[in-house]
Amino acid sequence: MMPLLAIAVPARLVHLAPVDVVIVVFYFVLVLSIGWYLKGRANTGEDFFMAGREMTAWVAGLSFLSANLGALELMGWAGSAYQYGILATHWYWIGAIPAMLFLALVMMPFYYISKTHSVPGYLKLRFGESSRALSAVSFAFMTVLMSGVNMFAMAKVMQIVLGWDINFSIWVSSLTVGIYVTLGGLRSAIFNEVLQFFLIWAGALLIPILGLYEAGGWTNLKVLITHRASEQYVHLWSGLGSFGNNPMGINWVGIVFGLGAVISMGYWTTDFLVVQRILAAKDIRSAEMAPIIGAGFKMLVPVIVILPGLLGLAVLPEKLMPESVAAITGAHSYNDVLPLMLARYCGPGLLGLGVTALIAGFMSGMAGNVSAFTTVWTCDIYRPLFNSKGSDRHYVNMGRWTTIIGVLISVGTAYLVMQFASIMDYVQALFSFFIAPLFGTVVLGMLWKRATGSGGFWGLLCGTLSSIGMWVWVKVDPTALRYVALSPHAKALAQDMFQALWSFIACVVVTVVVSLATKPIPDNELTGLVYGLTEVPSVGDVPLYQKPFFWAAVVTVVFLVLNIIFW
Amino acid sequence: MISIWFFIGISLAVNGALILAAGIYQLVNPPANPGIVLFSLHANVWWGAVLLAIGLIYCLKFAPRHA
């Protein structure tokens, strides 16, 4: 996620008309109504934590995507498109599509047939309790902190864009999310995420349509951007031959291997926040189709995120600044580009819908964090470590209380960040430490039967520690970036990519070495958990156009064509 | 159980109707200073109409049926 710094000068960007306020209020009424309607359908653990495992592929797929489509992502990456040009699209294409397809075709069958409640739950089955505890505690802790950080950042955005009081934004949004997740559990979170997905598109799609009209079409837009910035702002790959040839200060190795092969794989296949949505699918075909549907729509997201940033670069009369400069000068920052474009084109009614889209994006992300935290705390920490003999009803009640407590911890974190803004950067960095090594552990566990419990635990621990070590090294000595990213021209984003790559390699090496030095797990204990020892369930005798493999191939072809077109 | 698509239909239809109404009001009473670029396209009229149409289709297609 791109950080939206908390130290900006408050200056209201837009003014809402009465009809805009009605649209925003209607949104809150609707999401609470959905939660109230679903409260009677969350009485068992399977209902509350897994939405009854009855979601269709479309609902699970759109929810899977929506949980990631937070307002800070929308605004942050639109700002990145203004700052770095079309290169920011890599985070939506190579930084997502291969990982989503890998999840669908390779990993999902194992998650699904193991009937696990969570990713830490799979680690327990595959590597034992210690790996699950390490993964669950770190995930639960970081998820609830991230939720608070995002909450504060969003409240700050609402203050800047609308002039709303920070306390009002924090409490209204968090209480709303808390109420509808507590009432309806994961099903309520998923339903609202699908609703939010539609609102985000309805509210944001008009900006690129009107922007392209004003710019005179895509060809003319490229000319305008080349004139105002440089030709490299409209090329995806041609400037990635070396670190110095593109505005991001990164090369193709970092993008392909750091982002595409490690970070995105780690996020989309092991971050329980998104994987939980797929586990709620009603059958194996739906579970495989859901990430593929998500991938299809993910390829379109740059239309409402990257394109507005590029259009801002071409048509906005003022020049936007980095947050640090904007905070001093009072100018608008890169991250303001989406609200600025919204205010540029959207009159009464449309403005309300656009603001609702931002609020919906924030709330879908927060609901995702809260519901994932609730499941991991209840199923992977509380039940195995504190009370393994409770009734199903007891665990549902625990889930409801955990939702409320999770929201309150998030609110507390938001106020903590308000006092100490630097915490925000640390929390975001902390979260990134776990992603890459966890992917190494999970993927080795699924694909290599020789991996042992000790190997999995020590690999995960060493990978995480190596990531923390590199981060501290560069923090203490910024010149160390040239060693981590292998170039004196590398910039901050390159550090993230290469740090993830090295920590993944460290995790894999340690897992392999320790596994080979320890006693193998008998094959009969790995049935249903590892390739080669598991009969992967069939999606059934369905026509070609209903097979996940067919649609994965279609998405792959479109993905390749898009990359070639915008090369 | 009411389908999620019905709730989406309600949301799009109500938002579309409100945006369309606001757009028609501005069409009949054009403001002296619209404050936005491309006001002449009256985006809130046609975008509101599109959302209303999609919302109504969803509402009709996924309306809860009584046995």
**Which class of secondary structure composition applies to the elements of chain A?**
mainly alpha
Shape call of chain A = globular
Characterize the quaternary organization of these chains: heterodimer
Tally of DSSP helical segments of chain B: 2
Portion of residues in helices of chain B?
55-70%
Q: How many helix segments of chain A?
A: 23
* Topology of chain A as a string of helices (H) and strands (E): HHHHHHHHHHHHHHHHHHHHHHH
Quick one: which chains have the greatest interface? A-B, 32 and 29 residues
What is the domain tally of chain B?
1
- CATH topology (fold) name of chain A: Sodium/glucose cotransporter
Strand percentage of chain A? under 5%
SS strand fraction of chain B: under 5%
List low-confidence stretches of chain A. Answer: 1-10
* Straight-line distance between termini of chain A: 24 Å
Q: Could you give me the name of the CATH homologous superfamily of chain A?
A: Sodium/glucose cotransporter
Average of the residue pLDDT scores of chain A: 86
Biggest sheet details of chain B: none
How would you describe the overall organization of this protein?
The complex is a heterodimer of chains A (567) and B (67). Chain A is mainly α and 567 residues long. Helix content of chain A is 71%, strand content 0%. With 67 residues, chain B is mostly helical. The two termini of chain B are 12 Å apart. The model of chain B has no long low-confidence stretch (mean pLDDT 90). The chains are: A mainly alpha (567), B mainly alpha (67).
